[in-house]
Design a protein that fits this description.
Four copies of one chain form a homotetramer. Chain A is mostly helical and 202 residues long. Helices cover 73% and strands 0% of the residues of chain A. The mean pLDDT of chain A is 90. Chain A binds a DNA duplex (21 and 21 nucleotides) through α1 and α3.
Chain lengths: 202, 202, 202, 202
DNA sequence: CATGAATGAGGGTTCATTCAT
DNA sequence: GATGAATGAACCCTCATTCAT
């Protein structure tokens, strides 16, 4: 089956990656065997290994994609926001989308990424890069809001950025851990309001 | 009718648990082998398995201890607080302690616990229980603060509790992932202030 | 009714064989993968397999060529010899040539052939045939020399042939194993002299 | 089955080594799988790997033993020899023993060792060491014989040593390759006589 | 009770070969 | 006739766990 288009090859690679994401989101990086991924992909062992040289490389690719999506959605969702409430609302909305995929619950990969980052320097670097960019983005927004009078100018913009990120991370984590106990709307409302008033005393 | 005292047995059990925590915090649940734990404990394989029937049981025991400590410290640290700033400040202070142990960085176990909870129903239940109690506790505090006029009474106390927990979880997570980039004091200051003003307009 | 000329096909076949020899002499039959041979040949997997049905067949072809060269050079080099010293000298000279190819060190294939002959009956037969012919040739020379008075007539000509072959095989082997320690000229001198005097007492 | 004697452990290790030698002598290093060795050893995979960390380590151990035996037998067999014929006779006798083991034909490992030495620097070093010692030993004997008047003093002792080694190596190789065609006694007789006369003209 | 040698299913990965294009 | 993506059996090795001593 030679002389196939680059497009074809990329599709095949996606096919493997998607299968792997489905498996890993379901069972975790370590409890899931390559045999599972291979079966799910519908390809043979050899083919899977043609596209990803090792399980680690496959995991790294998944993490790259996940962090890329996360960063993209988060920055996009809060891009034009002019008040803390809008930032938080947008970011939580984006975060919620992660759970909406009926095929794959991407969010389930997140704690695994954090765990992996603790052991794997390459992944640690990726995570640092992604979160670093997000922090920078939020930092910029905070500064703009302070300039625009919607955020207390005495707050450290960097500190604000970290706390905002916490609101998102905590939301996803608690949604994963306490599924039935946390209501997205309630959480978003509380978070938005709490951050919203942060400039009232200016 | 044991030949040795119960005290002796409990000490041995602690010895194993401590060794396991050290290993798992360092290398992760999956990358760490029982051989590592056995070596670190100074006991024999048979002995380790006398106290913990399986690796999973050992992990479960560690998680129980970790969640217990977390819950204890968090509720204790925020017990008498009467303002959001005090709650957050106390909780973050307690969270910071987790990193202070020069021997073991307990915090490194946290993402692993979250990851494990996604696959292991027993652990999921444990985590739900612990975080549920924490949420209840924070809920109670929120209600008290609303009654005391230090928190906007229009906010949903449960929502506030979740957001407060997020502040703690996000802090620990970001400290783990972005070590050099996050300053505990700056974060605490920003968080405290942001939550503090939440009743200003009342 | 091929579209391409037989000549073309033979050239392609040579191309594959040469690439394989280069690879196998370098890395050994087993450590070298077909992928290496395919890459080195500049052809595709399908093409390589068009000319040689399997790795084993390729190896067999290489061995056939190698043994043919060996037999040819050895018999030719000692063809007109009338004294033991001439035989040995000629044979060692021919053997030395094997090392002289700057591209490929054919000699490195020799121990591999011996090893392969132990497992593969087809190759064993080839090796027996080649060495058998060489022995016959040396036998004939020995008989001639005995008749000519340059070799002790009491010696068994077949025994003499085997010992002479040993001188060559040992030379090549030791040159491969002890590269820096063995000097071709010294070895040849010693061997020639030792065999040379074998008729002195007649 | 703990608290076993060191002796017991060594016996087990021997058990694995012997099984491996039997397998490798039969089928070759590469065609023989660890599964074969494991089956032959009568132990489990885990146990085999307790005693030898990898297939390579097992092969290295076998080669060490083989070269040790070879060196030991060869030097011992020719230790007190005072004439070339005695040296050759002794060495060939020792070499013949290698074939006599009804359980394992150690000689079949020899070409494999040579082959392996071409690719594996560690083994190359071992082989160089062993053969180097043998050469030194034969060198010493040659010098003694020259002093004693049983070997032409004009011969280079080192060259003589190499040629003598060739006689042994060639004998073993030809016995392996041409089994039915070579008679140990005939070969030994021819070799002994040819070398024996090497001092006649002194 | 403690010991640690033994277990063996299962892990990730490779590679000679094929055949649809 | 050439291509090279696909195949899958087989490879070497690990590791949680057990049980004879």
């Amino acid at each position: 089956m030679p002389r196939v288009s680059d497009e074809y090859l990329l599709e095949r690679q996606e096919q493997v990656l998607d299968a792997a994401i489905r498996c890993f989101a379901e069972g975790g990086f370590h409890a899931t065997g390559m045999a599972d991924v291979i079966r799910e992909s519908g390809l043979s062992a050899g083919s899977v290994y043609r596209y990803y040289k090792s399980k680690d490389e496959l995991i790294a690719a998944i993490i790259t994609r996940l962090l890329g999506q996360l960063h993209g959605r988060l920055t996009q969702a809060s891009a034009g926001a002019t008040t803390p409430a809008e930032v938080i609302g947008g970011a939580l909305g984006a975060a919620s989308q992660t759970f909406d995929n009926t095929q794959i619950n991407y969010a389930r990969l997140l704690p695994q990424v954090w765990t992996e980052a603790l052991r794997n320097p390459d992944i640690a670097r990726q995570v640092q890069g992604s979160y670093g960019q997000i922090i920078e983005h939020l930092c910029g927004l905070a500064a703009q809001m302070q300039a625009g009078g919607t955020l207390d100018p005495q707050l450290d913009p960097r500190g604000v950025a970290h706390v905002m990120l916490s609101a998102v991370q905590g939301f996803m984590l608690q949604k994963l851990m306490l599924a039935q106990d946390i209501d997205s709307a309630t959480y978003a409302a509380a978070a938005s309001q709490m951050f919203a008033v942060a400039a009232q005393d200016v």
